[in-house]
Amino acid sequence: MSQSPASSEVGVNFFGLPCMLQEELDFVEPTTFMVGDNLCTFHFLTRKERAMHKETSEGFDPLSDAEKGSSPDGVNLKPRYPAVDYFRGTTILFVVTFHLIWVLGGFELIPDFPVMAGYNLPITNYLYFLAFYAVSFFWVNLSRFVHPWIQYLLFPVVTLSCIYMLCWESERSGVCTIMLCVGLSLAIVHEDRIKWRNLIIRTLKLGVAAGIISALTYIFIPTSPIYFGAIHCITLNTLLTMIFIRVPRIAFVGFISIQLFTMMGRVFPLEIPMDRPTVDVIPWFHNLGYCLLGVWLHSVGAHKISAIELIPGRPMHFEDTVFTFFGRHSLTVYLAHMLPALFILGVHVYSKWW
Length: 354
What we know:
By secondary structure, this protein is mainly α. It contains twelve helices and four strands.
């Protein structure tokens, strides 16, 4: 890919890490509007479904004025945990935005992809990411008191800024938060007993999805196919996490041990090779630790949070946002954006050969 003179220049961000200069962010305005407008649209279209889930969730107050009358009578839904859906939804949308920038960069519709730079200290990197994202999301959520749609216009601004300021950290943190959701979800599903039928069906679905992604990339991007990406990693770690599903304290010790092992710069002997040409490869051993962390978080009741109070006396319910909808359909959202993105990028690669 050819580089323009401006796109090869880098600056230094707040944390002292290399980042793109201001002229590289010219595309942010149209991209943020595109993402923000779609979130507002989905907020409107999904209000009935979210209202039904809000009614069936324990600990919720009656529906807000904005949602009253949107839930049809006689519909029974299995109660879900809004905090898990919300966290999973924000995570999958962060990943979708990251891949959107990746595809647009492949088509040279925006300046080159942000500079990748980081250190081999995972916890340090994630703390950088968490500090920026948590503080930003605090202000994004406060905007809900003014109007619920303002948060959707601010979400892509925060996300894109994070990607361009902390790209290396954003990529790895996005994967780790997905794995944390995997562990938390598995602990919820199997909290009373191990449901083998559910586990087998889930694993088969993930395996088929992983196979489709690998096959498509081998066809359309033969020089850099995905041989072990995010779905492959989730499939393997789903099975490995089940070993610890009944021992959350040991799972937490496993998380700490894996982090310390990684911070020492060591590579697990059975780790996937990371030096092969590919557009995406995910180390399973390091990310297994975050699945184990999710198991432990379930044991301390983190999944039971139904609302947050940034301002005392004014709770903000997770189901009042569209993020819970995307969290309930995270695999569908991931495949719906990933498969077309890989197809389009592959066509673009082929077009350069002719």
